[in-house]
Amino acid sequence: MEVRHTTNPTDVKQYDTERLRSEFLIESLFVQDQIKMTYTHYDRMIVGGATPVNETLELEDAATLKTEYFLERREIGFLNIGGPASISVDGEVYELSKLEVLYVGKGKRQVLLSSVDKANPAKLYFCSALAHAEIATRKMTMEEANPTHLGSQETSNERVLYKYIHADGIQSCQLMLGVTSLKTGSVWNTMPSHVHDRRMEAYLYFDMNDDARVFHMMGEPSQTRHLVVANEQAIISPPWSIHSGVGTSNYTFCWSMAGENYTFTDMDAVPASELK
């Protein structure tokens, strides 16, 4: 597991492109028959990807976490962005189609990840946060995720928001997770921008062509920067940073949050007129 430490917004003003990418961009998440994980000290979230093809993969990293098993003091949310997946949680099996989510709570000892069809392998994206209580495992389909239509063609941000893990959906200790899908012809996400100083956020961009890119905007509102993001790459967004993006075509992204406040609407909007 790769470990990344937090950064000071004053110092980030001096970063060049290479340093920005090394601190905030996760470039490789989905490697055949491997689990790839990044531990960020921003609210101690773990961002990862698993691509089981010929092997069943077990969620574990005792060397980094210093615990007996992965979910000893953690919770986790899985989003499948590939072919049909099978997840075994202490012997109970859950099957996930594309854009279905499985929440697994604190205290579950063994989590095994596999593909139903290795010719069409699963791609399991996951985010894990610290947990203080045991909450029941629960699966949710895209149709159950309260799809909300937002934006318009006129502002190039017509999109559908799906909320899976949140106060009114799948219950958790602090983890929130959802998916936003942009309509054809729309390219902007999370605009107007906002920050939420009480929690960090991670973005996974996917369902993009190989030659497509998203220009992910980050930084303090008065000191914005950008990262150029390819398909199936993820962003670590600090609490002090905006997190907006514009693509060369439409795309889908998964957003996940962890931190102090569990209220979805806890955010401080930043008008475009104030961005620099």
Per-chain topology:
Elements: E1 2-4, H1 9-12, H2 17-24, E2 25-26, E3 35-40, E4 46-50, E5 57-58, H3 62-65, E6 74-80, E7 85-89, E8 92-96, E9 101-104, E10 111-115, E11 124-130, E12 138-140, E13 148-150, E14 159-165, E15 176-182, E16 188-189, E17 193-195, E18 199-206, E19 214-220, E20 223-229, E21 233-237, E22 244-247, E23 252-259, E24 268-270
Cofactor: Zn(2+)
Protein name: 4-deoxy-L-threo-5-hexosulose-uronate ketol-isomerase
InterPro entries: KduI, KduI/IolB_isomerase, KduI_N, RmlC-like_jellyroll, RmlC_Cupin_sf
Short description:
The chain is mostly beta strands.
If you had to describe this structure to a student in words, what would you say it looks like?
This protein has a seven-stranded mixed beta sheet with strand order 1-3-4-11-6-9-12, with no helix packed on it. A seven-stranded antiparallel beta sheet has the order 2-21-18-23-15-14-13. A four-stranded antiparallel beta sheet has the order 5-10-7-8, with no helix packed on it. Helix content is 6%, strand content 43%. The protein has one domain: Jelly Rolls. The chain contains three helices and 24 strands. The model has no long low-confidence stretch (mean pLDDT 96). Strand 19 (214-220) and strand 20 (223-229) form a beta hairpin. The radius of gyration is 18 Å and the shape is globular. The protein is mainly β.
